[in-house]
């Protein structure tokens, strides 16, 4: 069971963290409370953070995609054991949408690099980290692809900012594509990578200011959004409850 810790104790523990990690995806919808919980948890290991089932499906889909793109055998029976009934059916449908996308564009892709991670120190104590689903040459341009297991295309602006973050992290990214896999058929949407990069950098500057404010004893707020329902620390604040009651995005 998770230990309930008040904000003052959290800040005191956060001050003992030598270096903080900030994920590219965190910057887009930054939640100060999640940032604090994760970095304190990384240091002290005091929280039990069960993954939401949607997050599990997404993780498994991305693992299967990565294995496929790296030429490894994808053992679907393994995922059938890990996911019960309808959850495996959802996984299988999304993964097959990926395969349909891949074989549609296979001849236009080259230099494939799957699940590429990198890091960049952006302040004295904060390191930005990110993992791109796929970087490849596509139609003679260096492109980043992000595979989305959701059904919604509502968050294209957020996807644009996320891939703008990858353009900030990786050199020579010229194009970006969000590949929506959760719908009945795949949907590949080209995003404006330069606009996304500018938006990401602007958000990053604000996030760094918020982190500095928290470290210096400021309030640890919760940023309520649709992400709250899938947050690993959703049992430790009111964000997920607010979303369930319909007050969030």
Could you give the topology of this structure?
Elements: H1 7-14, E1 20-23, H2 24-28, H3 32-44, H4 53-69, H5 76-82, H6 85-105, E2 109-121, E3 126-138, E4 141-148, H7 156-169, E5 175-180, E6 187-191, H8 193-215, H9 239-244
How do you describe this structure in short?
With about 250 residues, this protein is α/β, with parallel strands linked by helices. It contains 9 helices and 6 strands, in the order αβαααααβββαββαα. Strands 1, 2, 3, 4, 5 and 6 form a 6-stranded mixed sheet that branches.
Task: Tell me about this structure.
- The chain is α/β, with parallel strands linked by helices and 249 residues long.
- Helix content is 46%, strand content 20%.
- It contains 9 helices and 6 strands.
- It has helices at residues 7-14, 24-28, 32-44, 53-69, 76-82, 85-105, 156-169, 193-215, 239-244, and strands at residues 20-23, 109-121, 126-138, 141-148, 175-180, 187-191.
- Strands 1, 2, 3, 4, 5 and 6 form a 6-stranded mixed β-sheet that branches.
- A hairpin with a 2-residue loop joins strand 3 and strand 4 (141-148).
- The longest helix is centred in the C-terminal third of the chain and has 23 residues, at 193-215.
- The protein is globular, with a radius of gyration of 19 Å.
- Mean pLDDT is 87; it is low at 243-249.
Poorly predicted ranges (pLDDT <50, ≥5 residues)? 243-249
List the helices and strands in order: HEHHHHHEEEHEEHH
Shape assignment: globular
* Total beta strand runs: 6
Major beta sheet, specifics? 6 strands, mixed
H/I helix tally = 9
How would you classify the helix and strand content by structural class?
alpha/beta
Strand content: 15-25%
The value of Rg in angstroms is 19 Å
Helix content: 40-55%
Give the overall average pLDDT.
87
Q: End-to-end span in angstroms?
A: 29 Å
